[in-house]
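ugh ok fine here u go
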Amino acid sequence: MAFFDHMCRIPKTLWRTCTRFVVPTERSSRGSFGPYCSAPFDPKIGTDHRR
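structure:
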């Protein structure tokens, strides 16, 4: 959905989206989670490759 929120063009080739979270911990250090990635999306057929 990031493409729609920022009025960017949707890629015309196979793509996926990844994100990583960095959070402060109780000991003032940083913890991180991820990366978490979506399944590959093929805009030519309009579905991801899990189906």
